[in-house]
C-alpha cells in the first residue's frame, strides 16, 4: 500500500469514528505499527489529525473553509464510486442535468460522459470530464474559485436564473437535521439557484458529510428529492425522519 493510500485510509477512519486508539488504526490499516505511526505523525504535522494519548482524532472541520479539490479527491474514494455508480444508473438519456462542483459529482460525470445528455457544469473539472461523445456541455461563466475550480458570482447566478433542468446532482459540505449547508456564501447561492432551476434535486454525499453544519444554509430536506449516501455510519437514523427518499449504497 502506497503512503498516500495508507494516509487516506487513516483519515477516512478518523472521519467515521472521530477518535481511535493507535492499535485500532494499525489493525484496520493492516500494516506495521511503525509505518502507521510515521503516517500519523505526517498527518498531524500537516494539521489533518490531532494526536492524543494512545491514539488520534480528526481535526474539527471548518464552518467557513472547504478543503481544496486535491485534498477531497483522495478522501472516501470507494464510497464516492459506489454513490456515483448508483446515481448514474438513475439518469435517462436525453435528460438535462446540472452538475454541482465537487469530487463526488465528478465521479458521476465520469460515468455519464459520452451519453446523449445535456450537461450544465458548475465547475471546470466536471465540464472537461463530460465533453466527449454525444454529451452536450454548457459551462457557466463567472469567477473560478482557487483550489476548488467551482464557478460562482453574479454572472453564474444570472445564467442559472434563465435555465431549466430535469435533475440537479448536488454535493454537500455538510448536512444535519436542518438541511444542507456550505462553507462558502457564493457557492451556497449557486446551489440554491440550481435547485430552483431543476425539477428534481439528488443529494450525493458520503456519510462523513452528515451530522454537522457549515456556515451557510443551502436548503432543507423538503427541497431534496433523493439522498444517495454510503453505509459507513450508524449515526444517520435522523436522516430517515426527514421524509426524503434515502438510498444507502
Task: Please explain how this structure is put together.
- With 249 residues, the protein is α/β, with parallel strands linked by helices.
- It has 2 domains: 56 residues, Arc Repressor Mutant, subunit A (Orthogonal Bundle); 180 residues, Rossmann fold, CATH 3.40.50.1360.
- It is built from 10 helices and 15 strands.
- The strands form 4 sheets. A 7-stranded parallel sheet has the order 6-5-4-9-12-14-15, sandwiched between helices.
- α1 crosses α3 and α6 packs parallel to α7.
- The mean pLDDT is 89.
Compact overview of the structure:
With 249 residues, the protein is of the alpha/beta class. It is 38% helix and 24% strand.
How is the topology of this model organized?
Blueprint: H1 3-17, E1 19-21, H2 22-29, H3 33-45, E2 49-52, E3 55-58, H4 69-72, H5 77-89, E4 96-99, H6 103-112, E5 118-121, H7 124-130, E6 136-139, E7 143-144, E8 151-152, H8 154-161, E9 165-170, E10 174-176, E11 179-182, H9 185-197, E12 198-204, E13 216-219, E14 226-229, H10 237-240, E15 245-248
Parallel strand pairs: 4-5, 4-9, 5-6, 9-12, 12-14, 14-15
Antiparallel strand pairs: 1-3, 2-3, 7-8, 10-11, 11-13
